Fold this sequence. Notes:
heterodimer, A: mainly alpha, 2 helices, B: mainly alpha, 6 helices
Amino acid sequence: MATEAHGEAGQAVGMPQLDFSTWPNQIFWLLVTLVVIYFVLSKIALPRIGAVLADRKSTITNDLAAAEELKQKAVAAEKAYNDALANARTEAAKIVAQAKAEIQKDLDAATAKADVEIAAKAAESEKSIAEIRDGAAAAVSEVAKDVAAELVAALGGAADAKTVTAAVTARLKG
Amino acid sequence: MATEEHAGGLQIHPMDQFVVKPLFGDGPIEWYTPTNVTLWMGIAVLAMIALLVLSTRRRAIVPSRGQSVAELFYGFIHKMVEDVAGHEGLKFFPYIMTLFMFVFLSNMLGLIPMSFTTTSHIAVTAVLALLVFLTVTLVGFYRKGIGFLSMFWVSSAPLILRPILAVIELISYFVRPLSHSIRLGGNLMAGHAVIKVFAGFAGAMGVASVVPIAAIAAIYGLELLVAAVQAYVFTILTCVYLRDAVGDAHH
């Protein structure tokens, strides 16, 4: 039954798989096919795909290493920035303190100078006030002696200048 | 099966699709005659070239879709060979890749309507299985010398049982190419024949043919699975057998 499998117009009688007359043909073309596939794969396709996969692996590894490196750099840069910031802060604080101290010194000096000037002015003023007061007192005794002498004269007495003066001086003291 | 239905007017020839025909003319089939076998094996080769060579020609670090698929095939079989056959088995990676690509693409191309399924023929699967059998046997004796025979002598079994086990192991070793080839060819042939039978029903049942058409759709889905799984099974069994020849561990 097997040998007549492709008897009429490609119609199968029984199993075409068991038609051994076609086996040499199938086996021949199968071997040709396998050899072609084997050579295409082993000479072109597989080395190429293997190389691409290896390339990709190394690219990824390199990229990861580069990323790690950049990350380290970023961390270092941040640290440097923070350090610089802290330094700047201490520096600024120092400058502020210095400026404050200088200003305080200037202020103290100016205050002292002003105090001295004020003291000098006050002394001067006191002196002139004392002078004025002395002048006024002298003028008062003078006027009092004159007025007393005039009063004595007006009341008809002979005014002895010496006696009047003594009397007025005594009164003024009292 | 086909001839039985002739009388009822139901024309179902589920085996016609497996007939080997000359491409040109109607002459006898010599070993060199270009037949539909030649055509569909050639298409498988072209599909393989398109899939693994053309798609990878840009060698992109960031792969295109086609290149991803090629890399997927490569990685899948590479890992399988390494895991199952061991690191030594990687020398046979191109060989196993050849078998896998041929079986897988032939199975898949066979599911195109009106196509011819080369892997549904025992002649083809038997040669594939015998190639594996011969490779394993020759490589085993080449690498291990007479020590290759120690795989039949199960040293972990009690001494009395060992001769019996040796006979069983020897038989199972020689049955390997048979089961290896029938499993693939039989699965493919049965599935395609069933689809064809349902297709015959569909042609004869008028409006009610939605039922067989739905059945065909369902079976077609199943056959897609079978096509992929059988290619996988054939390849992984090849790796398992190869481990006997190149690996140190006993099975």
